[in-house]
Amino acid sequence: MVQYDTVLIRYGELSTKGKNRKDFIARLFHNVKYMLRDHPALEYTKTYDRIYIRLNGEDQDVIREKLKKVFGISSFSFTEKVDNDIQSIRATCIRIAQESSCKTFKVITKRHDKSYPMRSDEINRAVAGAVLHNSQLKVDVHNPDLPIRIEVHSDCAYITSEKIQGAGGYPSGINGRVLLMLSGGIDSPVAAYQLMKRGLFVEAVHFSSPPYTSEAAKQKVLSLAGMVSEYQGHMRVHVVNFTKLQLEIYKTAGDPYAVTLMRRMMFRLAQRIAENNRCLAIGTGESVGQVASQTLESIACINSVCTMPVFRPLICSDKIEIIDLARKIGTYETSILPYEDCCTIFDPKNPVTKPSIEKSEKYEARFDYEALIQEAVDTDEIVIVSPESDHQDEDFL
Predict the structure, then answer these.
(1) In the chain, which residue ranges form alpha helices assigned H by DSSP?
(2) Quick one: average pLDDT of 199-204?
(3) DSSP summary character for residue 141
(4) pLDDT at residue 352 tops 60
(5) Nearest-angstrom CA–CA distance, 165 and 28
(6) pTM
(7) Which of 9, 97, 195, 395 could be joined to 135 by an S-S link, Cβ 3.0–4.6 Å?
(8) Distances (CA, A) of 298 to 5, 112, 308
(9) 5-to-18, 113, 158, 195, 353 alpha-carbon distances in Å
């Protein structure tokens, strides 16, 4: 395996950002450095369309896995930094070819320095000819086993034989804050991941109902938040006591409107907490038609109590797609642990699937829910979680 000395990071959608591009690049640069904060030997250089990281002996396998989790990176490569004369470029490419077990290759050159005396196709031919004469590899311009990429700059050249797919999206935090309603299920941690990918910094609110929900159920939610927080550095989780509101709802309405009223109260609570914490939108893990409270009629009825934008990144995903993504980000096995949450402890037998706003308001008029909402807001317990249980800070944002 070639031991490269530099990481070359390419930007993704940032190339479309126009006048805001510098802000997006600055956020990405900050996020990359934060993700790699435990590697003090690294040296960073930022340019208009690249970030270069000098490894200085740091473990490239560890760096590789961490960079895969930074949103805003289109792709990245581990490269060798060499002098930009054709002799040095050619010698390095020959060595890479000789060390490879591949059978076919192609040379791909990009000149960042347009004053370089050789054009890109001239460099391609000079290097390819040398590789053909000094290795067993054959040229395949369509589907090469070994694509040798050369970037020529005014003072150096970067050479690599790999291109690693990045996480894509926008740098986490560049597009503001959203408050996610986080349960202990499969969907909401995946929704958090999707929101982060669009450049949002995610806070979470979790509704607990002690003594009907256990401390283990709460810790499960915090564990899930910690897992997905790796993509943005840390996460603030608001744990709110929902017991009194929930008991009053079931006393007042019971089946079949209890779930509808419960969700309407949750949205009211979420908006209050979001407003108190500089969040400009609410996020959920809802997928249309998945359960009774996620029919179009239910969503419309429940959403009517909220004046904030509500982001539902999974709204058109089916369960298999959501499970696949949960496995990819590592939350699935924790999500399926058998701890009850406040949405399941009083699971109604016949929940309404087409609730009306008018009937919901009729039930709500029977009790002073505003006072109970404020009482619940006052119980807000903020827990800061991160991938490392003993590392809780807010330097990231």
Answers:
(1) 21-35, 60-67, 86-99, 120-134, 187-197, 215-228, 243-252, 258-276, 296-303, 319-329, 332-335, 357-364, 369-377
(2) 97
(3) S
(4) yes
(5) 16
(6) 0.89
(7) 97
(8) 56, 55, 17
(9) 32, 21, 10, 34, 59
